[in-house]
Write a structure and sequence with these properties.
single chain, mainly beta, six-stranded antiparallel beta sheet, two-stranded antiparallel ribbon, 10 strands
Length: 107
């Protein structure tokens, strides 16, 4: 997967189009990422009691995973944030390095 945990990404389609956020968790087997502040959903939790006796439950707002094809990596070029695709190259020792296609810089 070309997007990793900690990357800054921008949503390119859907209800949150244009929003930017940091990747919290990547799910490579499902081709999805959890992005901070994007695709927020309301979840209704059943009321219950904790060990101290306080009430829990109600409506909780959390982020839901977004498909990897709906986000694009954001890199900085000359002080501006630019969205780019990700490519790979190998260095002299054979290590795989991610490269920003638009700027040509290593990520």
């Amino acid at each position: 997967m070309k997007i990793k945990k900690g990357d800054l990404v921008q949503v390119i389609t859907g209800k949150d189009k244009g929003k930017q956020g940091k990747v919290i968790v990547a799910y490579p087997t499902q081709n999805r990422v959890l992005v901070e502040g994007v695709n927020r959903v309301k979840k209704h939790t059943k009321a219950g009691q904790t060990a101290r006796g306080s009430q829990t439950g109600g409506i909780v707002t959390t982020e839901a995973p977004v498909h990897i094809s709906n986000v694009q990596l954001v890199v900085e070029k000359d002080g501006k944030k630019v969205v780019t695709r990700v490519g790979y190259r190998f260095d002299d020792e054979g290590n795989k390095i991610r490269v920003a296609k638009r700027t040509g810089e290593d990520i």
